[in-house]
């Protein structure tokens, strides 16, 4: 309830203090969810998360106070002072886990359960992205573009040598954030569309992993014996997350590259498209492990054969949408 309340306060507020209050409620609401397993790893993740979010919230408040001091405005959309814009970009980058403020995010995700990791990757990113959306007209394009390209590069590069699936999905999130942030000044609605589609695909992946109880690559190799159909769907969802046509994930990347080219930023579009190939490699590896391969050596995990789990309607819906939404792209485009 607090998560819903905090998110609602932030996205519907017009005053900086109310937006900050919503962010604080959100942070305090997620802390018990991360730490409920009482494992030392989870407690460590909570402390890292709390310290980073507290610092970011302080920066948001400092930025808005500086802006109010110079302009007399507490309105969210009236962020005009250059120092305030710079501080806010740093604060939101810290909240989201953008490079160079990304260090906490993979660690916190690794210490959380799959359900909490899903909340951290989707719901918790919505309020900061909304603040970026509302202040996008006054932010620094060069700073945002460089942070976005660095995020896409590091998200792809660091995901290559991971064996823990939560860490791979954390770096995938950092990479997708780069795509969202690079376009926010030129077409903010396209950023929201990208975020919605990313949330949909990530939800499908996390819910599937939670059902088949897989958290690392070695157990993923034997998961095809448990639920063959669900694994096939997981492979397609991962390829959609990678942005391969004709799956849903291709749509935001296509539109962002098109918009960057319209803005005469062809070199930037080319760089970020090339960097997404790094991400494609580890998505392909995940997809390959989930369905195609037998383990190359004997694993320590007991193979289970066809678990008779009840059919999960939410997984079926989000997986179908995250794979088959591309034909509906004209309808989505008309709404933005």
Automatic annotation (TrEMBL):
Question: Taking the first listed entry, what is the main subcellular location of this protein, grouped into a coarse class?
Answer: mitochondrion
Q: Where is the NADH dehydrogenase subunit 2 C-terminal domain?
A: 280-333
Can you say where in the cell this protein is located? Mitochondrion inner membrane
Q: Which ranges carry the NADH:quinone oxidoreductase/Mrp antiporter transmembrane domain? A: 13-278
EC nos: 7.1.1.2
Q: Name one GO cellular component term.
A: mitochondrial inner membrane
Per UniProt, the keywords (alphabetical) are:
Electron transport, Membrane, Mitochondrion, Mitochondrion inner membrane, NAD, Respiratory chain, Translocase, Transmembrane, Transmembrane helix, Transport, Ubiquinone
GO BP annotations of the record are: mitochondrial electron transport, NADH to ubiquinone
Topologically, how does it sit relative to the membrane?
Multi-pass membrane protein
Catalysis performed (reactions): a ubiquinone + NADH + 5 H(+)(in) = a ubiquinol + NAD(+) + 4 H(+)(out)
Its transmembrane ranges are 15-34, 46-66, 86-105, 117-136, 142-161, 168-186, 192-212, 233-257, 269-292, 313-333
- A GO molecular function held by the record: NADH dehydrogenase (ubiquinone) activity
Domain of life the protein comes from? Eukaryota
For the protein in the UniProt heading, the enzyme class is translocase
Provide the function of this protein: Core subunit of the mitochondrial membrane respiratory chain NADH dehydrogenase (Complex I) which catalyzes electron transfer from NADH through the respiratory chain, using ubiquinone as an electron acceptor. Essential for the catalytic activity and assembly of complex I.
UniProt lists the family membership as follows: Belongs to the complex I subunit 2 family.
Return the protein name: NADH-ubiquinone oxidoreductase chain 2
Species annotation:
Phaetusa simplex (large-billed tern)
The taxonomic lineage of its organism, from the top, reads: Eukaryota, Metazoa, Chordata, Craniata, Vertebrata
């Amino acid at each position: 309830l607090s998560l819903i309340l905090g998110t609602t306060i932030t996205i519907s507020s017009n005053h900086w203090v109310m937006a900050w209050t919503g962010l604080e409620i959100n942070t305090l609401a997620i802390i018990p969810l991360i730490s409920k397993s009482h494992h030392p790893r989870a407690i460590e993740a909570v402390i890292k998360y709390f310290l980073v979010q507290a610092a970011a919230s302080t920066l948001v408040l400092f930025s808005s106070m500086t802006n109010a001091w110079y302009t007399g405005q507490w309105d969210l959309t009236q962020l005009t002072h250059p120092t305030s814009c710079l501080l806010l970009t740093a604060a939101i980058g810290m909240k989201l886990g953008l490079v160079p403020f990304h260090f906490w995010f993979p660690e916190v995700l690794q210490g959380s359960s799959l359900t909490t990791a899903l909340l951290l990757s989707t719901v918790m990113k919505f309020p900061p992205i909304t603040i970026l959306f509302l202040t996008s007209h006054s932010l620094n394009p060069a700073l945002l573009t460089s942070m976005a390209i660095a995020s896409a590069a590091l998200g792809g590069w660091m995901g290559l040598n991971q064996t823990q699936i939560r860490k791979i999905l954390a770096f995938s999130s950092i990479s997708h954030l780069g795509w969202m942030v690079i376009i926010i000044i030129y077409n903010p609605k396209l950023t929201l569309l990208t975020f919605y589609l990313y949330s949909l695909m990530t939800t499908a992946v996390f819910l599937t992993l939670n059902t088949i109880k897989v958290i690392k690559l070695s157990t993923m190799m034997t998961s095809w014996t448990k639920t063959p159909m669900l694994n096939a769907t997981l492979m397609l969802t991962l390829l959609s997350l990678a942005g391969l046509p004709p799956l849903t994930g291709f749509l935001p990347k296509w539109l962002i590259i098109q918009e960057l080219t319209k803005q005469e930023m062809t070199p930037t579009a080319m760089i970020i498209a090339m960097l997404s190939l790094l991400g494609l490699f580890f998505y392909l590896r995940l997809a390959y492990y989930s369905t195609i391969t037998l383990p190359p050596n004997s694993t320590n995990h007991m193979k289970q054969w066809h678990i008779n789990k009840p059919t999960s309607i939410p997984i079926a819906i989000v997986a179908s949408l995250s794979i088959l939404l591309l034909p509906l792209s004209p309808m989505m485009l008309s709404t933005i």
